[in-house]
Amino acid sequence: MKKYKIPWKLILALTAAVLFILNFSGVLQALSLLWNAALPLILGGCLAFVLNLIMSPMESWFRNKSPKLEKKARPLAITLSLLIFIGIISLLCVLVLPQLVESIQLLIRTIPGYVRDLQEFLSKLFKDHPQIADYINSLNIDWNSMFQKITGFLSSGVQGALNSAVTVVTSITSATVNSIIMLIFAIYILADKERFVRLYHRLCALYLPKEKETRLTHILVTFDSSFRSFVIGQCTDALILGTLCTLGMWLFQLPYAPMIGTLVGVTNIIPMIGAFIGGGIGCFLVFTVSPMKALVFLIFLCVIQQFESNVIYPRIVGNSVGLPGIFVTVVIVIGGALAGVAGMVMGIPVAAAIYKLLSEYITQKEIRAGLRPDPEQKPEKAGSAS
């Protein structure tokens, strides 16, 4: 009877699978609640990963600078890395948001003049067709009335939002609390990151054989290296593109050069579509000053974007991540469809790590099958046989 005995693990797995299928909607709802509850901690871990890129070299510099800073090196490094991160975010907001609001107000004031100029141009163009010219001249848009309606709609929307003050206050409070939790969790990880590494090795020693622990550690190190290279490469690429855009706009005497250059560099962190987002907003801002300068800006941005995509990006990001261009495109499309912008950004380092691990696995299989020479095996000397 023993050979017909069903393993209890298989019974447990089948039972769990049946319960999952029967209660699929309830499981999804529970997973959604769990995700929302853990989101501040997940974001805190992501923030800690980014801050660690700044903190680690800074901490090493403090330790090597003076023995007196040995115990204070990590707190100083964490504080300075947080100040740098917050300073960059604040600088972006100060550079972009006020100018964007001012440009929208300026565009609202100048739209009627542009429309009148366009009507006059079209009337002269179709002067040999009186019916079309008369129709164009008859188009009279009451801009004041339109803006009043838009303002009234927005004010009514704001009034409606103010009427539900409890919801607004709750949302703001929840966002503030989550941000504080995220920041505290990130600081805790950075302050005691060695403890998490020791805990990982202790758990592996308890539940995994040495071979599997080594394999899992290699996988985690590969993912860490991939994400590290991607973040550093993207930030370097964004800095170079933003600097080139700012200098070029100064050279061509285009308006808002520092702000648009910063915006183009930051949005370029989003693969493929980031440059179009920054370029579209920048073109809109330049258009409020001069439509002709907006055309010059578009041509200039296309030129430096081609230079960045074909020269800078492959050398900085492509080589560091190690993912072929065709796979980058596939990952961006699939990641964007599954998780939006986050899927585009996170998909590349994940795919790069998987690609590297698969390449190593296939290489090992080829070596074992004798289809590829083993690089670790030393070639025999010519006279060794004798």
Explain what the structure shows.
With 386 residues, the chain is an all-alpha fold. Helices cover 84% and strands 0% of the residues. The chain has helices at residues 8-22, 24-65, 73-125, 130-138, 143-163, 165-191, 193-207, 210-251, 257-267, 274-287, 291-321, 325-368. The model is unreliable at 382-386 (pLDDT under 50).
Topology:
Blueprint: H1 8-22, H2 24-65, H3 73-125, H4 130-138, H5 143-163, H6 165-191, H7 193-207, H8 210-251, H9 257-267, H10 274-287, H11 291-321, H12 325-368
> How many distinct helices?
12
Order of helices and strands: HHHHHHHHHHHH
Q: Give the helix level as a range of percent.
A: over 70%
Low-confidence stretches: 382-386
Largest sheet: none
Globally, the shape reads globular
State the total count of DSSP E strands: 0
| Structural classification | mainly alpha
User: Termini separation (Å)?
Assistant: 62 Å
Radius of gyration: 29 Å
- The amount of beta strand, in percent, is under 5%
Q: Mean pLDDT, nearest integer?
A: 78
